[in-house]
Design brief:
Layout lengths: L3 E2 L9 H7 L9 H18 L5 E6 L2 H12 L5 E5 L3 H12 L3 E5 L9 H10 L4 E5 L1 E2 L4 E2 L2 H11 L4 E5 L11 H4 L3 E5 L10 E6 L1 H9 L10 H9 L10 H17 L1 H21 L3 E2 L8 E5 L6 H10 L2 E2 L1 E2 L8 E5 L6 H17 L6 H10 L1
Parallel strand pairs: 1-13, 3-4, 3-5, 5-8, 8-9
Antiparallel strand pairs: 2-10, 6-7, 9-10, 11-12, 12-15, 14-15
Helix pairs in contact: 1-10, 2-10, 5-6, 11-13, 11-14, 13-14
Bound molecules: pyridoxal-5'-phosphate (PLP).
Length: 376
């Protein structure tokens, strides 16, 4: 039976990427590696929508990206405003607090959006050195209004640095770092970029780099961007050993995405989201997010569907989805539809969900659900 890895990251890895991973490891000082490493830095800029940002490709997970963002632009005791639409927004507040920053958090009920007026009020009330926005919160599936929030920040508090977490968005949703005036954008490798977990990719604006230079006691060594900038400028230089084979994988995947065409790749995500949602809605599963992201769906169970039994039965059919987080635990499940996931994988997934519901004694109309999927 085909494994369907539909948790919202890590996502399925194509045969081509797996082949790239298994290529013989080469010297990270070689010209060959230097040119591949340079190429992935340049290509990541296309995904973040930046010409002017300085890109970084560093071994580590998405959380390292969060930490690098904050440690490089905020000093001890500085003010940070966190816009949170769930578990991963809250993580920014936790990191900020553990680093001794003064953190204020604007959050909301799961599935809803932080009120833009509340953002304006906060910015009028106090000066914040930085604000964080999670483009897609993977716990609720909420798509943040990044463009509107960045506009407000630029108008009301132009000195505030803007950080955007693109972990569950970059590659699957258009991002415009330069146009939106974002200072730090970052993502992880295991979601829409469709390679295994293990790389954090970031881009810093010149303002963010200038701010780093003004921080005297930066509380990170590995994550200090000033140590990485010489490597970005000359990718044959050494600071810390790059994850050579993951860089091969990244290049392979970025080439595939860019050959496919970024706008088409975004469109694919939108289309797959529509199909899954039409099918699940015909079964009485409702989306948690009022404005859902195209990369994943967080569905609330209808009456009578027990979370643990449902996911256990799906796992027996080699279909892997994720449980809910925080207040959504036990009430929802999360399914990813990003990266190299294809329509036929999702069609198969819906079939396995139908079988599972039947096994649980729930009456379903197979024809209606499959038609909803196919016709959307
Ligand atoms: C939006 C978002 N931010 C940050 C993270 C943390 O990334 P990681 O688990 O790779 O450290 C995740 C992980 O799923 C995420 O979805």
């Amino acid at each position: 039976m085909k494994q369907l890895l539909l948790i919202p990251g890590p996502t399925p890895v194509s045969v081509e990427v797996r082949e790239a991973l298994s290529r013989e490891t080469i010297s990270h000082f070689s010209q060959n590696f230097a040119s591949i490493y340079k190429d992935v830095h340049e290509k990541m800029k296309l995904l973040f929508g930046t010409e002017h940002g300085v890109p970084f490709v560093i071994a580590g997970s998405g959380t390292l990206g969060m930490e690098i963002s904050l440690t490089n632009i905020l000093d001890n005791g500085e003010n940070l405003l966190v816009i949170s639409h769930g578990f991963f927004g809250d993580r920014f507040a936790e990191i900020g607090q553990s680093l001794g920053m003064n953190v204020d958090i604007l959050s909301t009920l799961s599935g809803e959006h932080v009120d833009l007026k509340a953002v304006e009020d906060k910015l009028k009330e106090k000066h914040y050195e930085a604000i964080t926005i999670t483009h897609v919160d993977t716990s609720t599936g909420v798509l943040a209004q990044v463009e509107s929030i960045t506009k407000i920040v630029r108008n009301l508090s132009p000195q505030t640095l803007i950080v955007v977490d693109g972990v569950c968005a970059t590659g699957g949703i258009e991002e415009k770092m330069d146009e939106w005036g974002v200072d730090v954008f970052f993502t992880g490798s295991q979601k829409a970029i469709a390679i295994p977990p293990g790389l954090a990719m970031l881009a810093f604006s010149s303002r963010a780099i200038e701010k780093r230079k003004r921080i005297k006691n930066v509380r990170t060594y590995y994550g200090d961007i000033l140590r990485w900038i010489p490597v970005v400028e000359d990718t044959s230089k050494y600071f810390a050993t790059p994850a050579v084979n993951m860089v091969f994988a990244l290049q392979e995947s970025l080439n595939r995405i860019l050959d496919f065409g970024l706008p088409v790749y975004f469109e694919k995500h939108t289309l797959l989201a529509k199909k899954v949602r039409a099918a699940m809605s015909s079964l009485g599963f409702e989306l948690v997010a009022k404005i859902p992201a195209p990369t994943l769906s967080v569905f609330r169970y209808p009456e009578g569907v027990d979370d643990e039994s449902f996911r256990k039965l799906l796992e027996e059919k080699e279909l892997f989805v994720a449980g809910g987080l925080k207040d959504l635990k036990g009430k929802t499940f999360r399914i990813g539809h990003m990266g190299s996931t294809e329509e036929e994988d999702l069609f198969l997934a819906i079939k396995r969900i139908l079988e599972t519901l039947e096994e649980m004694g729930i009456k379903v109309d197979r024809g209606k659900t499959l038609e909803a999927f196919l016709k959307s």
